[in-house]
Design brief:
Layout (H helix, E strand, L loop, with lengths): L3 E5 L2 E8 L2 E7 L5 E6 L5 H8 L5 E9 L8 E8 L2 H12 L7 E4 L5 H9 L11 E5 L2 H6 L4 E4 L2 E4 L2 H15 L3 E4 L4 H11 L14 E4 L2 E5 L2 E5 L2 E3 L4 E4 L4 H5 L2 H11 L3 H6 L2 H15 L17 H7 L5 E2 L4 E11 L2 H8 L31 H22 L3 H24 L10 H24 L2 E7 L2 E6 L8 H12 L3 E14 L6 E10 L5 E4 L10 H17 L2 H16 L10 E4 L12 H11 L9 E6 L10 E3 L9 H16 L6 H21 L1
Parallel strand pairs: 8-11, 11-16
Antiparallel strand pairs: 1-2, 2-3, 4-6, 4-7, 5-6, 8-9, 9-10, 12-15, 13-14, 17-19, 18-20, 18-21, 19-20, 21-22, 22-23, 24-25, 25-26
Helix pairs in contact: 8-14, 10-13, 10-14, 12-13, 12-15, 13-14, 17-18, 17-20, 18-20
């Protein structure tokens, strides 16, 4: 089976791995396919008559397909077109021939390699272990447009551009890698442009000459967050993985990616840059194909009518118990195993089965009154193998001591985890191919009922819930009451719910942090000491935030250890003073003070002179492009200024920093540690001021 698909000069090259490299088979007869259904006054015969002589159409014929999971088979027009580009062009043309909705199109917007594998019924699983070559070019070198050094598998190649290219070319020839791991996709055009400038005609990164740009860079917004998608490039016969644009490789490993290649049918190169939703959709598309269901180009499903009571209940979301702010001793955490995916599977929550006509009037979903069809839905069939396989992997992980096997299983388990984590939210995503908002609402309703019932069971057996959110609860023993062992309670709840409640962790203590300007608890900010282990758990506080400098994160963890050892706010403040002394000495390595922030919009759209803006201005003057969705790394050198001199880029190699700015950051981190014990920033500042006054007085007396 091919592990890589290339489109060249109108042909398709299927690359298959061999023992000593790879070879390809050329397919010159492949024609991609789209489908059209007719509605309203549109006529299938008329459409066929128009399309059969169209220059972009190779062949058209009537076939029987299902236009959705809720539909039986009906006559639609299958249209084989001349090329990939013609698919989208023709689809737009057809959709404009009648009133909106009269012609509905299917199987239009598949990615290149995935489409070919899907239509040819190919599984792009590598048939042997893949060899990987890592290439990295520093951003400043790319900006200078003079390729004088690069890193190849951690070996630095340097010299004039022609010498660097010659060394790289020899390395590529000698190792013949299957995968090129790049620190940025811009390495590809930079290398070829350098080769052109040097008249290095024989240079090639692929297994054949030339390279292609598959997509330009773009900015997007998802759930209120701006993201950046880099340009994507292709070389023949080798998969390109861009480290700056690969979620699954960064969150798992090569084993995890290969596991998802098998499950999704997406070749490795496409899987590497794909989002979680894209992979989940690919799995759903394969299931749809098995059921003879077409994939809509644009979703047109409507939301069914609801009563005011249903609207109110449906809008509640997941359930949370307000955390009991403070430090609690001897706390236990219980988690439902893959709660939302298991609700989908065990309750048969599927877009085509929710609120079905055959069981109208039956109230299966608690609080909402929705019915769910008894016939098995497609979504449970997609998710159940993932749940089962991951549980098997987790069981083997607990039992094996084979280091290589552990790495493989952890990678595969982590990759599956992200699909399971996202499957619930994707049902409410407006652009999901097969999503349905009623599924999203039903899953939340089941989860709320499960968590409330679990709380009642725990309280009836001598346990108090100190916090609970979505699929987890933290409990501590009620003083003066007899406790049923938690092992028994988990078995009781598991039997009642039909989803396993697991004992996750025991904490010597756990602290729930209040909101910064309120006494109410922050839902996702807590930290604690894991019992019988030299380990701590941190969630939501500064040391877990990606923008926090390493120095602040390390200091906060150290203060938490001081709290663990002494259970005393003054002991933590004393530890804080030691970190402040290090900071105020002015001798820290500035790499420990780098702040990483995401750019939310173009530089000229900012109206305030923030630190981010200052960093973007410095980047622009140095020819370093920062698009919305990308990160900018900087050190604050003088926060009193409102110009670009306020900060310095991490790559500038500065040695100075704004002590007062980082002092404030350190105190805020200390507040997160001490606020569960009632101390806020003002209390900490006062303690430090008293210490300073006493110290100065003592010095004067001496």
């Amino acid at each position: 089976m091919p592990f890589k698909i290339d489109y060249r000069d109108g042909d398709v090259l299927e690359w298959t791995l061999t023992d000593d490299g790879a070879e390809y088979v050329r397919n010159s007869s492949y024609t991609p396919t789209l489908y059209v259904s007719v509605h309203g006054r549109a006529d299938l015969v008329d459409l066929y008559g128009t399309l059969r002589d169209h220059p972009d159409v190779v062949h058209a014929r009537t076939v029987e397909k299902r236009i959705g999971f809720r539909y039986d088979s009906e006559s639609v027009l299958r249209v084989d077109v001349t090329s990939l580009d013609a698919v989208t062009t023709l689809a737009h043309e057809i959709s404009g021939w009648a009133k909106p909705g009269d012609y509905r199109l299917y199987n239009v917007d598949f990615s290149r390699e995935f489409r070919y594998c899907l239509e040819r019924d190919l599984s792009p699983i590598p048939e042997r272990e893949l060899s990987v070559m890592e290439l990295a070019v520093d951003e400043s070198v790319l900006a200078a447009d003079c390729l004088t050094k690069l890193l190849v598998d951690e070996e630095r190649l340097s010299g004039d551009p022609e010498a660097v290219l010659a060394k790289l070319s020899q390395r590529v020839t000698d190792t013949d890698p299957d995968v090129l791991m790049l620190n940025t996709s811009e390495v590809v055009p930079a290398l070829y442009q350098a080769a052109e400038s040097c008249d290095f005609d024989e240079f090639q990164l692929g297994r054949l000459p030339e390279w292609q740009q598959l997509a330009g860079e773009s900015t997007y917004a998802s759930y209120g967050r701006v993201g950046h998608s880099p340009a994507r490039f292709n070389v023949p016969g080798r998969a390109i993985v861009d480290r700056s644009n690969t979620f699954f490789w960064s969150q798992s490993n090569l084993d995890g990616c290969i596991d998802l290649v098998e499950r999704s049918g997406k070749p490795l190169q496409e899987l590497a840059w794909a989002s979680i939703g894209t992979i989940l959709t690919a799995m759903q598309i394969r299931e749809a194909r098995r059921r003879n269901v077409l994939v809509p180009w644009h979703s047109w499903r409507h939301e069914q009518l609801k009563t005011m009571r249903q609207l109110h209940e449906a809008d509640r979301g997941g359930f949370t118990f307000a955390p009991d702010v403070g430090l609690h001793e001897d706390v236990h955490e219980l988690d439902f195993s893959s709660l939302y995916p298991n609700i989908i599977v065990s309750r048969n929550v599927s877009p085509e089965k929710i609120r079905c006509e055959c069981h109208a009037g039956r109230e299966d979903v608690p609080g909402l009154g929705y019915c769910i069809c008894d016939e098995r839905g497609y979504l449970p069939d997609v998710l159940e193998p993932l749940i089962t396989d991951r549980e098997t992997m987790k069981t083997e992980l607990r039992e094996t001591d084979d280091a290589e096997r552990i790495v493989e299983l952890e990678g595969r388990s982590s990759a599956i985890k992200w699909i399971l984590v996202s499957c619930f939210g994707y049902q409410g995503f407006s652009n999901a191919k097969f999503g349905r908002i009623e599924c999203h609402e039903a899953i939340n309703a089941f989860a709320r009922e499960i968590l409330l019932d679990t709380k009642e069971t725990l309280e009836a057996n001598g346990w108090r819930v100190v916090h609970g959110i979505v699929d987890s609860v933290w409990v501590t023993a009620v003083e003066g009451e007899e406790q049923t062992p938690l092992a028994e309670i988990t078995e009781i709840v598991t039997a009642d719910v039909g989803i396993r409640l697991e004992y996750e962790a025991h904490y010597d203590w756990i602290a729930f942090v209040p909101l910064r300007n309120s006494e109410a608890g922050a839902l996702t900010k807590y930290f604690g000491k894991v019992a019988a282990e030299d380990d701590y758990k941190y969630r939501g506080i500064e040391c877990r935030q990606r923008s926090t400098p390493q120095f602040i994160a390390t200091a906060q963890k150290d203060m938490i250890e001081a709290l663990d050892e002494h259970r005393d706010v003054k002991a933590v403040c004393e530890q804080l003073k030691r970190w402040l002394q290090r900071l105020q000495a002015g001798t820290l390595d500035v790499s420990e003070l780098v702040i990483t922030n995401r750019v939310s919009k173009p530089l000229d759209e900012y109206t305030r002179t923030t630190r981010n803006v200052a960093a973007l201005e410095r980047a622009e003057t140095r020819g370093l492009c920062r698009n919305p969705g990308q990160n900018v790394d900087y050190v604050v050198v003088d926060d009193s200024k409102q110009t670009a001199d306020r900060v310095a880029l991490a790559t500038e190699g500065v040695e100075e920093y704004d002590i007062e700015f980082y002092r404030k950051q350190l105190i805020r981190a200390a507040e997160s540690v001490l606020s569960p014990l009632g101390w806020r920033e003002a209390d900490i500042t006062q303690y430090l001021a008293d210490y300073k006054d006493i110290s100065l007085q003592t010095f004067g007396e001496g």
